[in-house]
Amino acid sequence: MSASSQGGGETPIVEFRSVGKVFEQGSKTTKVIDDVSFGVANRPGHGELITILGPSGCGKSTILRLIAGLRPHFPPTSGSIHVSGQAVEGPGRDRGMVFQDYTSFDNRTVEDNIGFGLECEGVSASERSERARSWIAKVGLDVDKDAHKFPHQLSGGMRQRVAIARTLILRPRIILMDEPFGALDPNTRLNMQDQLVNLWRGEEATVFFVTHSVEEAVYLGDRVYVLSPSPGRLYREIPVPAPSRPAREMQREPAFNETVFEIRDIIDKLESMSDSDG
Amino acid sequence: MAADRPRFFELRVAPPSLIAKLLGLATVAALIGLWWVVTSGPTPEQRLVSPVILPSPVEVATSIDALWRERALAASVAATLRRVLVGFGLAVIFAVPLGVLAGSWRVFDAAAAPIALFGRNVPVAALIPLTVLWFGIEETQKVMFIFIACAPFIYSDSVRAIVSLPDRYVETAQTLGATPTQIVSKVLVPLAMPDIYKSLRGLFGMAFGYIMLAELINAEHGLGFLLSTSQRRGLSEHIILILMVIALLAFLIDRFLLWLQHGLFPYRRDAE
Q: Which residues contact A63 (CB under 8 A, 6 or more apart)?
């Protein structure tokens, strides 16, 4: 099943047209994703947050990396990927990405990590520092205490805050997040979810957020994409209420949990289907 | 319940640092004691080991003066250090940038790999005849010998340091708009530097060992030269002293390089 693009005839911000990816290793070929099609409407001044769920090995990260233009997943074996009507040709700063691991440049202070993209662009040192410092505060770090710390002095959650600031400072149209909170403890994770919701409201970006946590997907998302495994296909597209209250509150409500259980059932079903396939 | 006393034979558990130091000292003391026992006796003939083979600790200690004054120990130390520093320094200037280039754009590594493999596998001693042919028997030969012996290792270690960095760093930089040259200069080089430096520290120790070989031929001063002349003149007490000086120098140099490492890379915790 494929999802259709919403919202009047405008060019979608991200569009997959029957995208497939096959890896070949010697004589062995693995089909990672197959015939994935979807479109995300461009809604100026109001991005969408799309969370991507699915059993492991269903190509969630592949979809993100294809949008980002990162090898070896990019280019796709079949189909085409368009961002704002343009075919994707490789990575670029219009599509920022936050990973789960190795998220900081160890040799740079917090301030210089956040200013990295601006530095590459040739922005002057003083302006860089000023803008980086404002972002340090925005992601909930302490400008005076943390600006000159090195990554090894930070906790995992703080490092992810730096990674998010480093991406958002460039104001990308699209933000790709590959299980960014996957390695954090549950408490930090909830804090980060709240933080992300607050930050994202201020931006006009479209976010693709891959996660293993159904709660996280339902809480953060405007829509949840559920992928089916081997090869990955877009199985369901489920609209969910936007996060209007803090994570700790909202994730305790019966309505919220009902949606979570519903989606979990779908994923369980998909998982058992793929098991019986062998 | 057992008291909280140190357990010495726990698998892979290091003893407390004071105890570790004392144990080390005890070994040295035992060796010196053994040395003293086998070389003591009222007359040379009554010693367990002849003074020609092993002079006594006292004889070695009292010969320091002769080694220092008559045989100009300091000049030899300076000569040896200068040769290693110049040869090794040239190798670093030459091989690190090449290694960074080849690690970043691996077609260059593919092209250079056979030469590097050859260079790393030629026995160093076998390089001496060739360097003599090419560079004569003066200082140039000694410096170039160190250069040729070290450059392939420095090159390969630099390539490895760049290549072994997780792709994630490159991908992050790419999605932040960095160009390939910016990724090399702003991401790969700074992140690989601590690794490269660490391997240089090890290789410098190796170079310091190699120079002794080159100094056996037509050297004026140099610790290797002092060693070979001591052997010809049967000055076994000087040989022992020189070996101690070499070990001490190597240790001091390594400590200095380690201290420098902490200063250069404050963002690395794992500096031993």
A: A16, A33, A36, A52, A208, A210, A227, A232
Q: Do A92 and B191 touch (CB under 8 A)?
A: no
For residue B246, which amino acid is it? I
B135-172 pLDDT per residue, tens: 988 889 999 999 999 999 999 999 999 999 999 999 99
Q: Which two tokens stand for residue B236?
A: 């076994």
Range of the domain at B184: 77-223
CA distance B141 to B135: 5
CATH classification at residue A176: 3.40.50.300
Contact between A193 and A247 (Cβ < 8 Å): yes
Phi, psi of A24 (to 5 degrees): -115, 125
Nearest CA in chain A to B193: A107
The pLDDT tens digits of the residues spanning A4-50 come to: 444 445 788 888 898 889 888 888 888 888 888 888 887 777 788 99
Place of tokens 């560079």: B135
Host domain of residue A46: 14-104+154-277
- Please tell me whether the interface predicted TM-score (ipTM) of this complex is above 0.95: no
Test B175 with A92 for CB contact under 8 angstroms: yes
Query: What residues in A contact B176, CB-CB < 8 Å?
Result: 93, 96, 116-117, 120, 166-167, 170
Give the CATH number, domain containing residue B147.
1.10.3720.10
Can you read off the two tokens belonging to residue A55?
A: 């059993």
B257 in any annotated domain: no
Query: Taking CB atoms and an 8 Å limit, are B191 and A107 in contact across chains?
Result: yes
By the 8 A CB rule, do A227 and A61 touch?
A: no
Q: Please answer yes or no on whether A102 and B168 come within 8 Å at the CB atom.
A: yes
